[in-house]
Every structure is written in C-alpha cells, then in structure tokens.
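Lab manual, section 2.4: Encoding a predicted structure.

Procedure: take the sequence of the chain (125 residues), apply the prediction step described in section 2.3, and record the output as structure tokens. A sample record is shown.
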Amino acid sequence: MTEATAPSAAVAEPDGLDLETMRESARRLLADDAELPTPEELETLTLLLRGHMMLLIPAVEDAARLLPEDAVPRACALACVGEARMRLGLEPGRTLPAGIAHAQRLARSVNALCDHAVNLDGVHR
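Recorded output:
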C-alpha cells in the first residue's frame, strides 16, 4: 500500500457519488493481493472509508425511502444503512491487526452501500 494511484475520472453515478473511487478505497483492504498498510496508511484509509460511508448512508437511505414500505430492496438497503451506522460508532482496536480488521469491516460496508446505491438508482429511473 505504499504506492499511490491517481484517482479515476469521476463517472456520473447516483447522487453524483464517485462510486468507483469509493470501491477502489475498499479494494485497498479487501483485495486478495492487498498489502498490509502501515499504521499511518491505515489511519488515513480508515478516515477515508468513514468519509465515504458518511456520504453513502444518506444517499442510500433517501433512495430506499422512495420505495414502498413492503419492498424487499428497501428493507435490505435500510438494514445495510443500519449496520453501516453501527460500524461508524465502533472504535478500532489498539493493535495494527485489530485496526486492519476494523477498516476491513468499514470497507465491506462501503462496498455494500455502493451496491445499494447502484441498485436503488436503477429502480428510480
């Protein structure tokens, strides 16, 4: 994770969110060939993932609430939002492995929220 990559060009996505950049941030921790971050990189990446979640949560929640209350995609998206909010409230452990595990959970939430943003955007078009 010592190599910096240039951000990809922003693509018009749901609510103007740059989902590809958000997914790339998550891949830095979740890819099979991901390198272990240094403590400094981990702190930066954790803050970045938290920021992505803070943008995604209201966008997904707003899109889900446009669906009927008994719609399965609505229930799934709102459950994901609830879990993401819970994860935002958690603190990472004091060790590097615990911090990495925490950041990986945030990354999985970012991926899931991106999926819901795309799926719900398609429902509303």
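Check your result against the sample. Residues 96-124 form the longest helix (29 residues).
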